[in-house]
Amino acid sequence: MSDVAGPEIQRLIELLAKLPGLGPRSARRVALQLIKKRDVLMTPLADALTRAAEAIKTCSECGNLDVNDPCKICTAPGRDAGLICVVEDVGDLWALERAHAFSGRYHILGGVLSALDGVRPDDLNIAKLIERANREETREVILALNATVDGAATSHFLSDRLKDAGVEISSIARGVPVGGELDYLDDGTLAAALKSRRPS
């Protein structure tokens, strides 16, 4: 490709290929669309990326991304400061907010513990979580980590670390999704659904 396109185009393709869901082939198609629609797509996108890079901050309270610090969720007066929902990443916060099912505040760990990847407790936003859990207004910490081996290990670790805070510690339910058919579910999901059963 480098013998067909100049270094600027090649650099654009290489950077696009680093985005999730885009391989080299998809990156070439996206780059071509951006170049073809330079005035309506590429220039506004470049401007938006520059503005975002300059304006976006990490919330010092919860770890969310926003143009304000503390973020809009941490400062929203209608949210319950006594409930803290712990998530792995900002994308998980966005998913929960889309569902409109939670009116408390969040805490973003920035990952999960992983011996394989060398992620230790000091690499995550755990100290701030413990500090927040020990505040007088905090009543409950909800662990909403992904249902993976590392997610489960991190939840267990956090439960142990939060015991002394004197708050209720809960985890989101696991199991059969709404509209899910048992025949199509994997064994782990079915086992989790049976263990998390409740009275009807």
Write the layout of secondary structure elements.
Blueprint: H1 7-16, H2 24-36, H3 38-55, E1 57-58, E2 65-66, H4 72-75, E3 80-87, H5 90-99, E4 104-108, H6 126-133, E5 140-143, H7 149-162, E6 168-171, H8 187-195
Determine the strand fraction and express it as a percent band: 5-15%
**Percent range for helical residues?**
40-55%
Counted beta strands: 6
Task: Indicate the low-confidence ranges by residue numbers.
Answer: none
What kind of sheet is the major sheet?
4 strands, parallel
Can you put this structure into words, describing what you see?
The radius of gyration is 21 Å and the shape is globular. It is built from eight helices and six strands, in the order H-H-H-E-E-H-E-H-E-H-E-H-E-H. The chain has two domains: 49 residues, Orthogonal Bundle (Helicase, Ruva Protein, domain 3), CATH 1.10.8; 107 residues, 3-Layer(aba) Sandwich (Dna Topoisomerase Vi A Subunit, Chain: A, domain 2). The protein has 200 residues and is of the alpha/beta class. The strands form two sheets. Strands 4-3-5-6 form a four-stranded parallel sheet. Strands 1-2 form a two-stranded antiparallel ribbon. It is 43% helix and 12% strand. The model has no long low-confidence stretch (mean pLDDT 91).
In short:
This protein has 200 residues and is of the alpha/beta class.
Feature tags:
12% strand, Dna Topoisomerase Vi A Subunit, Chain: A, domain 2, four-stranded parallel sheet, Helicase, Ruva Protein, domain 3, 8 helices, single chain, globular, two-stranded antiparallel sheet, 2 domains, alpha/beta, 6 strands, 200 residues, 43% helix
